[in-house]
Specification:
Blueprint lengths: L20 H10 L4 E7 L5 H11 L2 E11 L14 E7 L2 H16 L7 E3 H6 L4 E4 L6 H7 L3 H15 L3 E5 L5 H16 L4 E3 L11 H12 L22 H7 L5 H17 L22 H16 L5 H16 L3 H16 L15 H6 L24
Parallel strand pairs: 1-2, 2-4, 5-6, 6-7
Antiparallel strand pairs: 2-3, 3-5
Length: 397
């Protein structure tokens, strides 16, 4: 059987996860996992590090996030105390990765109340390219089962199946928790009734079983508590929240019939096979700039520079004309036309709206174009400053 851990919290689940990405990949390779997914709580701080490590180690990594989702308006204070459910989303392709980034950003910028939150309206808008897992016992379906609302759980499962089609999976977990035992039987029934595939996962917060104690220390730092305190947040004495092998999962799920177990294990690899994200590294990715009709980005930059030079100098000497044409040629050759317009735009806005800004610093003061645009206020001609210290085709950075 093939197996892929799909529910893992790295050290980027700050003071909650205790798994280093490099060690996770090495561990996964040692145990012949096909791939591994990292699903940090509400954040993607570690995604690029994980992606780079995966490429270096020639090992497939899956970029994901375990979101906090509410039934309500993330910006309405009356919904601040709405119950937060967990939901795991994995990037199936580049569109999915971009949607993950958008959802995480919105959750922090607009939806933050104790935790970064999204809602179903946002999920519907940004669902393309994503695979959805029902999460742990803090997921909405499991919570409804535990609370005795089996019909509500089935309705919620149907909602996610309608939204994600065959990319929605019911998660089965068993860390020897009473609530899991209560939820799992009904989760299986719902999956069979609605024809939803299942995956077996282990909510992994530390890499190995013996790491449970120092993970507990991490939780104490998180909650400002002492280890000897009885009434504090802790996983102990439970030590099951580590990255398990197939053999260890088989032991945890010995109550489950072998056919269902093997299919749910194999489905983790099926999920992994669906995921193909390619992130171009080492390239400058700059936004474009909307220019007025009848202009291109380079021609509009040239227009603004000439306009600015006429305001900066009483006379445009041959030296000045040769210099700004040279700079514009280099800027265009290096692909920075839009970059200059973007910087001009926000600095111009600041200067015309009473926002303190400038007068510019560092090697940018050597640019006549920057001076003409008002980005800097130091005359590079008068002070014999070199443009090449700022932009140089031989030094791409």
């Amino acid at each position: 059987m093939r197996y892929v851990p799909l529910h893992v919290h790295s050290e980027y689940s700050l003071l909650d996860g205790a798994i280093r990405n490099k060690e996770l990949i090495e561990f996964s390779q040692e145990h012949n996992f096909d791939a591994v997914a990292v699903t940090d709580h509400g954040v993607m701080y570690g995604a690029i590090e994980l992606y780079r490590l995966g490429k270096d180690k020639q090992f497939k990594v899956i970029l994901g996030c375990e979101f906090y989702i509410i039934n309500g308006d993330i910006q309405d204070e009356k919904d601040n105390n709405a119950e937060r459910y967990h939901l795991v989303l994995l990037a199936k392709n580049n569109t999915g990765y971009q949607n993950l980034v958008k959802l995480v950003s919105i959750a922090h910028i607009q939806g933050f109340y104790r935790r970064p939150r999204i809602n179903k309206e946002l999920l519907e808008t940004h669902s393309e390219g994503l695979i959805c897992l029902s999460a742990c016992i803090q997921g909405e379906i499991s919570k409804q089962i535990i609370n005795g609302n089996k019909e509500g759980a089935k309705k919620t499962a149907q909602y996610y199946k309608n939204l994600f089609k065959d990319d929605f999976y019911i998660e089965l977990q068993d860390h020897n928790l009473p609530d899991e035992k209560k939820a799992n039987a009904e989760l299986i029934n719902i999956a069979k009734d609605l024809n939803i595939e299942m995956v077996i996962t282990n909510d992994s917060h530390y890499l190995k079983k013996q790491d449970a104690d120092w993970h507990d220390t991490l939780l104490c730092i998180n909650t400002n508590a002492l280890k000897e305190e009885e009434k504090r947040f802790k996983f102990l004495p439970n030590t099951e929240f580590y990255v398990k092998t197939i053999e260890e999962l088989r032991e945890s799920f010995k109550w489950l019939d072998s056919e269902t177990f093997e299919r749910a294990i194999e489905n983790t690899a099926v999920v992994a096979d669906k995921c193909h994200v390619i992130i171009k590294m080492g390239e400058n990715i700059l936004p474009s700039f909307d220019v007025p009709t009848n202009y291109t980005i380079p021609s509009y930059l040239g227009y603004l520079v000439k306009k600015g030079l006429s305001q900066r100098y009483k006379e445009i000497t041959p030296e000045i004309e040769e210099r700004f044409k040279y700079e514009l040629e280099i800027i265009n050759k290096m692909g920075f036309d839009a970059y200059f317009l973007i910087v001009w735009d926000f600095i111009n806005y600041a200067k015309t709206h009473g926002v303190p800004v400038g007068p510019g610093r560092g090697s940018a003061a050597g640019s006549l174009v920057a001076y003409a645009l008002g980005i800097t206020d130091l005359d590079p001609i008068k002070h014999h400053l070199l443009f090449e210290r700022f932009l140089n085709p031989e030094r791409i950075s």
